[in-house]
């Protein structure tokens, strides 16, 4: 019986794309299919310049399309060059399992068929993708280390030329045969840079004032645009203007956090031919900027605290994030802040495009998770808020409370059952790994004893974390029961709130949310909402209650 085969071809960078990696993978796949008498090529999926390490399964459109086609029974076999073409994270072993459950065989040219029928098969897949992730981490470390050494040696680490410079040929070629470039000062633009630093250090002007001054003088920014405060900020923070390269300027998840300049990695010596601003002037600009930022943040935090405590309302209704001031990190307890940004680009017709990406960022940069998308968080909170208003209106409080207790108890029971299943699977994994270690020591197994021991240790550490989570859930269940038993007062909600909330614009929504909600606590993919519903015009202090954890 003939089997329909589809191939997955992927490159993780534009460099690989330009070097013709896709044709190589395609030729290998064609040759492999030709050797299988029952296989018939049907179609190919191509991912261009997409990282299988930085992106999850949900973020990769091609993998989602493959799943959709698999559900529609459009093909029988998925073939790719190596398992790392599918993914470089442990979670991709579950993606393979999902395809197998849909009746799709997953094959790789280098590793053969990836099976998930037996427990040992699943473990081998897990180890395979775990290895892929490890290789990606090692590659990333090597690239970062190479860039560090380049910067320390005073060599251009790559990227675009900052304002005031242009890229020119260095006359040197790297190990891959590509011509390396270096920076060279553009004198006309360098004079503008000097003016910016003079405004900042001699006249004490801030980013916005400097931008307005340059625009008033008719000086154009990069691309002939008007100057913006963000562009000025970038110039005043960049040490290249004192003749020093620097990297490691951003950290955290996906580089969302701007690191302190004391954490940056600088060139060991100044590069005379790149100096536009004296070092003393650059340092002075940093001191002025950092001191101004410190004072503004301190004043803002104090004003925000006083205002919200006094009026129980948002400090401002400006901005595009509706939950600012309400949402807290479930790991560290800190209030999430605005981490939004805009992407700007130009299409072939010359039209300028912009897309807004709204995000909530944990200031504590919790390693478990510190970034939440605006749509991802606000949609579920709006739904819950609207549902709560609708459910509480005209309903006897004790009936609602009893129902909520039952729901919450059921939620804790489901969580404990889930934890029990995870513990059972971990025990099986640990037993399987321990059984294979003697074979690995004798050299009779595919993986080395060291790698199996490393994975075994990771599994044991995960078992400890799950045990701690079990204890936490049990404590939460006890506290929730105790807390709910203390709630005896009825709640009153104006009868037109639900309709008003659903039809309101963002500013009105923020005001209503502050009147209704005490806190939104997010912890990775779980959310808890504490409501604060009072009597009459909400002047009385009331005890809030917790909405059961909701899946995001």
Put the structure in a nutshell.
With 552 residues, the protein is α+β, with helices and mostly antiparallel strands. It has 15 helices and 20 strands.
Structure characterization notes:
The protein contains 15 helices and 20 strands. It is of the alpha+beta class. It folds into four domains: 3-145, Rossmann fold (3-Layer(aba) Sandwich), CATH 3.40.50; 165-295, Hect, E3 ligase catalytic domain fold (Alpha-Beta Complex), CATH 3.90.1750.20; 312-396 and 490-552, no CATH class; 405-487. It has helices at 14-18, 21-34, 61-71, 83-86, 92-101, 119-152, 187-202, 207-216, 229-237, 279-311, 374-392, 397-441, 449-485, 497-503, 506-516; strands at 3-10, 39-47, 77-80, 105-108, 112-114, 165-173, 179-185, 246-247, 250-251, 257-258, 265-266, 327-329, 337-338, 341-346, 352-357, 359-361, 371-373, 517-523, 526-531, 545-551. Strands 2-1-3-4-5 form a five-stranded mixed β-sheet, sandwiched between helices. Strands 12-18-19-20 form a four-stranded mixed β-sheet, with helices on both faces.
Largest sheet: 5 strands, mixed
Global structural class: alpha+beta
Strand order of the largest sheet: 2-1-3-4-5
Portion of residues within helices: 40-55%
Rounded to an integer, what's the Rg over CA atoms?
Answer: 29 Å
What key phrases describe this protein's structure?
single chain; five-stranded mixed sheet; Rossmann fold; 552 residues; 4 domains; 20 strands; disordered C terminus; 48% helix; Hect, E3 ligase catalytic domain fold; 15 helices
Secondary-structure blueprint of this entry?
Blueprint: E1 3-10, H1 14-18, H2 21-34, E2 39-47, H3 61-71, E3 77-80, H4 83-86, H5 92-101, E4 105-108, E5 112-114, H6 119-152, E6 165-173, E7 179-185, H7 187-202, H8 207-216, H9 229-237, E8 246-247, E9 250-251, E10 257-258, E11 265-266, H10 279-311, E12 327-329, E13 337-338, E14 341-346, E15 352-357, E16 359-361, E17 371-373, H11 374-392, H12 397-441, H13 449-485, H14 497-503, H15 506-516, E18 517-523, E19 526-531, E20 545-551
Parallel strand pairs: 1-2, 1-3, 3-4, 12-18
Antiparallel strand pairs: 4-5, 6-7, 8-11, 9-10, 13-16, 14-15, 16-17, 18-19, 19-20
Helix pairs in contact: 5-6, 7-10, 8-9, 11-14, 12-13
